[in-house]
Amino acid sequence: MNKKLSEIAIHLGGFVIGDADVVIQAVAGIEEAVEGDLTFVANPKYRPKIMTTGASAILVPPDITEAPKPLLVVDDPYVSLARVLAFLYPEKPPCSGISSEAFVADDATVAEGVTIYPGAYVGSSVRLERGVIIYPGVFVGNGAVIGEDSVLYQNVSVYRRCLIGKRVVLHAGVVVGSDGFGFADPGAANMKVPQIGIVQIDDDCEIGANTTIDRGTLGKTWIKAGVKIDNLVQIAHNVVIGENSVIVAQVGISGSTRIGKSVLLGGQAGLVGHINVGDGAMVAARSGIHKNIPPGTIVSGSPHMPHRQWLRMQATLTRLPDMRKSLLDLAGKIEEIEHTIENMKKR
Fold first, then answer.
1. What's the rounded Cα separation, in Å, for the pair 105 and 313?
2. Are residue 207 and residue 147 in the same domain, yes or no?
3. What does pTM read for this prediction?
4. Which one of the listed residues 237, 274, 304, 307 is annotated catalytic?
5. Domain range for 262
């Protein structure tokens, strides 16, 4: 684990101010760091702690040039943090091979370098490409395809015929391809509509623990390349999510909604079905999205509204009791004036 700060700087493409030979043994938060640790400053509110941190060196943006500790200057400390963590804490790859305690159908196609742990189930006509890792308790249904170097952690379920791209990570408990919630004559006959579509997840996606992605009623539910989805997200049938979008925990997306490229959905946001969210839009946490959102728009609230309008509304809420009192006082004075006018008319 021991690396000189100069070695880390070369790896990150940054430069050192101060002692470049200081030895880094670990990475820690700025408040918890001790001697031997590298820490970082990505959020401006932590800048004052540069003077008091116990770390041996600090990862900083270019506008910070002075500190009592050596500085590793990079363009984006948070991006560089991700790279340095991968550099200092590489995951040990499992030994490839198929456990005798796993079930693999005779007609499944398993490439070289695939790892299948005990207790996994790989169904008929499945294709597992090179470097795939299948952890214990994983279910891969008939005809599913898992692309190169993808990882399916414990108890993931990939239903029949679903397509998983390359370098996809499915965390524990993810369900891909469960039936969409489709019932005719709801509240009466509740007649199930067969869900005969699939889910397609493209390359370089990561899906958080216990997230569920329903298969299409017809066609497919489609998660495009580079999408990152947090834990406990519900994605309904025939939803399409554009490239590099980010969806935070407990978001719910109703059926046939289309999410554009590079969209950010905050935690617990809820989206009705059959709407479009344009490229680059941002949805604040706990927002209720009831109609289309144009590209590049920032919205908040439930029902949603432009973010600045929501901020003004929130600022007003704390003043409502005083405003109510003022209105009641005004109403009382108006009533007195009207009473006076009536008396004058009678004279």
1. 59
2. yes
3. 0.88
4. 237
5. 97-308
